[in-house]
Amino acid sequence: MPAMNPVSSLEPIPVKKKSYRPTSTWHLKPPTRNPIDRIRRLDLGPPEMYEAKGPEWDRGPMPNHPMWRENLFILRWAVWPIVIQWALLRYTDIQIDSTFAQIVQVILYQAWFIVYGTRIFLRAQRFMKIYGTLNEEKKGRDMIADVHRDRVTLALVIFLIVRISGIFVLGKDRSADPSLSIWSPVKIGLFQIALDYFFYVYHRSTHDFDSLWFIHQKHHATKAPTPSLAILADNYQEALEIAIIPFLASQVVPKMSFAELYGAAAYTAYVEAIGHSGIRAYWGTPILGPVLKPLGMDLVVEDHDLHH
To answer: Transmembrane stretches, by residue range (predicted)?
Structure first.
């Protein structure tokens, strides 16, 4: 796993009168080799990320971040399990037709998805430092609160397991040569649109109907989220966002191959994490941006930050 970026010099974030920010002290303990602790520290950035810069702070106009760089990043870091599977099936006598081979395949994809997710977190931290974060002159980003620490850690583990398990359940050609075509980006884009539709219906409902607010309430405990806080939720929201909504989206778009499902999972994880980064830039969506922007429909990081 890539090196962590622990924050050991931060002071506890105190609870002030009328403050939205709960206490966070868990990061002050020395890092350990415990896998749970390492997962918990994936999203820890430099101390200045969590501090208000003050009213005199001014970075100037918001930069426009090119999405071709993000598509390149996603492809460069997400593609390796597909490449390895293709190479093994094409150039060796290995076949994924035994239980042992299938277990190894699952482990390969699961392990690499963790590496890929880590790279997303590190990339977010890098550009949060380069570009700054939205509203940083008034407040820094939120750290995982002590009261939510174990919940967020468990949710991250569940997310990684369920998303990869889902593509193995839905991808019936998982043992064959990875199948991609010129239509794969279109199919993944359609999946993103379907996913956003189902998400919008559920999300809007939780805000519009008081009786449903309990589903989404915990997620809004953070007002200035970071990528790891994208997963901050109660059981109902976790079930909807991690499993049910992606499954529904996969059922209303053209049938996708195993490799396309994996690509959709990689793009979705990226959008979910970066969308909660608060990066102060015009930062759109990597696969749908070129289509949505000319129509005035592009979604950018600032949109979700304003929502929080």
So the answer is: 72-88, 100-122, 152-170, 182-202
pLDDT over 70, % of the chain: 93
Q: What is the dihedral of CA 80, 39, 270, 217, to 10 degrees?
A: 150
Give the amino acid at 153.
Answer: T
Note the pLDDT tens digit of each residue in 88-131. 888 888 888 778 888 899 999 999 999 999 999 999 999 999 99
Task: Find all residues with CB under 8 Å of 169, minimum gap 6, and list them.
Answer: none
The DSSP bridge partners found for residue 282 are 64
Task: Output phi, psi for 13, to 5 deg.
Answer: -85, 110
Output the DSSP codes for 102-160.
HHHHHHHHHHHHHHHHHHHHHHHHHHHHHH-BTTTTT--PPPPPGGGHHHHHHHHHHHH
CB 12 within 8 A of CB 23: yes
Q: pTM above 0.85?
A: yes
The lowest-confidence range among 27-41, 99-113, 145-159 is 27-41
Q: How many residues does the chain have?
A: 308
Burial 123-132 (b: 16+ CB within 10 A, else e): bbbebbeebb
CA distance 44 to 257: 35
DSSP reduced 3-state for 272: helix
The residues, ordered by sequence, that sit 6+ positions from 284 with a Cβ below 8 Å of its Cβ are 67, 292, 293, 298, 299, 300
Distance of alpha carbon 221 from alpha carbon 69, whole angstroms: 32
> Crossing angle for the helix pair 258-274 and 149-170, nearest 10 degrees?
160
